[in-house]
Structures are given as C-alpha cells and as structure tokens.
Amino acid sequence: MHNVLIEPSTLAQWLDEGRDVVVLDARARLQDADAGRALWREAHVPGARHADMDRDLSAPPSPEGGRHPLPDKAAFAERLRRWGVTPERPVVVYDDQGGAIAAARTWWMLVWVGHPAACVLDGGWPAWRAGDYPVSSDTTEPTPSDWTPTFDDSLIATTDDVARGDAVLLDARAGERFRGEYEPLDPAAGHIPGAHNVPASSLLDTQSRLLSPDELARALPAGDAVISYCGSGVSACQLILACAVLGRPLPRLYPGSWSAWSSDPSRPVATGAA
C-alpha cells in the first residue's frame, strides 16, 4: 500500500506546485451536525472541499445500522464525483482530532471505493496552522468528475460476523466507555465480549500525530482476522489507518459498532477491563 500519511510540508509543496490533488476537510463535532461545515467555511486548506460527517459520510441512524451507518453507495459515488475525485488524483483528508473525527473514516471510505492514492494529513488542521501554511475561506464548487467507483464490501464486518467470535475485536472507544463506567450515547454500557480496548486517542502523540510504527505495533493486537469498532464506526477507522501505516492487512470495519450492537438487548455485553 502507498504511504497513507502525508506531512503538511509535502501537501503545501504540492499545492504551491499546482499539483492536481483533491483535499477534503473532514472536521466534525459528533454532537453538532453543523459545526464541521462552519469550521470549514471560516478557514480551510486552500481548495479543500468539506466532507460532512452526517450528510456525506453517513446514512441516517437506525437501530440496525447504528448512529453513523455507511451511506447509500450511489449517493456516495455521486458525492465523490461532485468533489472531483478520480483514481488519478491523489486525495488528502484532514480533521482537527488527529484523524479520529472524521479524516480516518473518510480515508477508509476512499479505500472502500478502490481509490489508489488516498492519505491523511498527519497532525491535521492544527499541524497545518502550526506550520503557518496558507488558508482560505473560498467555497467555490470544484469541477465534477465522471468516476464510477467499485465498492469492496469485503472490508466490512456485519453484526453476524462479530457475533461469531472468531475475529480479534478492537474497540477504539475511551477506556471508561469500554469498561462500562460511562455511556452517554448508546443503549447499554460496556463492550462486546472478548474485545481489546485500543482507544483511538492512545495512538496519537501530544501534537495529534500518529505514534511511531514501533509504538503502533506495540499498541495494536494482530491476528489473521481483525475487526475494528467504536461507538458508531468513526474513530474505529483510526485503528485501521494505523494498521495501514504498519503495512498490516486492514482490519474490517464494523460500521454499526457499539451503537448497533447495544441496540438489541439480547446481545451479550461485557463490562470491566478486557
């Protein structure tokens, strides 16, 4: 797999050289559906399009699909065309949470549609601003493309896949939610039995950049079959991104995650440490 992280200095050089690249601003606030777009309108990397967590990267919530189900394929393909995405144009995605909300989700969805050159801006918006690189408030729509992507659903795990219990489960939520000490959003507190807790935030340094490969390798359990989940299939993608950095096979994403699993009271729930 190509490099899935890009340095702000490299992106700045690409833009300065006029390289044909699509930049997606995926900043979001999970409790405020309009916040991400407002942040983008205020200032963004020059030329960046806004990738909206609730409107572009998710379908409406449901008990079976969770709080952020994957969007309808035709609708997402049309959104990619409106952003001007093609396989020939590199795509750089960023947020302001180290990738966890929702740059890694956007990156994973680009992998899902078979894009060969999608990457995440390491350190995201804070690193871009810290480097004093140019910003813009221009919201001009890009020239649409005519790309028809092909979706690879082998990257997705269903609730039944998770329930079989034959995969290594990685839970990207904070420890207190994993242990069942606190649950502000979903029907039950706790985690899927047998899961390992690898909080997405634990994979970042103090500058919101991914840890070194050695540190990532120590933090992430490996296996022949790995499934990543979180509360609603967003921060789980940060763990998948880290595996890509390590050159490991990509874990499957359980899009419904805990929000879907806990919607059915008959499913088992574990609490406490792993």
Task: Note the main attributes of this structure.
28% helix, 274 residues, Oxidized Rhodanese, domain 1, alpha/beta, five-stranded parallel beta sheet, 10 helices, globular, 9 strands
Question: How would you state the average pLDDT, rounded?
Answer: 96
Q: Roughly what percent helix?
A: 25-40%
Biggest pleated sheet: 5 strands, parallel
The CATH class name of the largest domain reads: Alpha Beta
Describe this structure in words.
With 274 residues, the chain is an alpha/beta fold. The protein has 2 domains: 5-151, Oxidized Rhodanese, domain 1, CATH 3.40.250.10; 154-261, 3-Layer(aba) Sandwich (Oxidized Rhodanese, domain 1). 28% of the residues lie in helices and 10% in strands. The protein is built from 10 helices and 9 strands. The protein has helices at residues 8-16, 35-42, 73-82, 103-112, 124-130, 159-163, 175-178, 213-219, 236-246, 257-261, and strands spanning 5-6, 22-25, 49-50, 91-94, 118-121, 168-171, 196-197, 226-229, 252-253. The strands form 2 sheets. It has a 5-stranded parallel β-sheet. A 4-stranded parallel β-sheet has the order 7-6-8-9, with helices on one face. Strand 6 (168-171), helix 7 and strand 7 (196-197) form a beta-alpha-beta unit. Helix 4 (103-112) packs across helix 9 (236-246). It is globular and about 55 Å long. The model has no long low-confidence stretch (mean pLDDT 96).
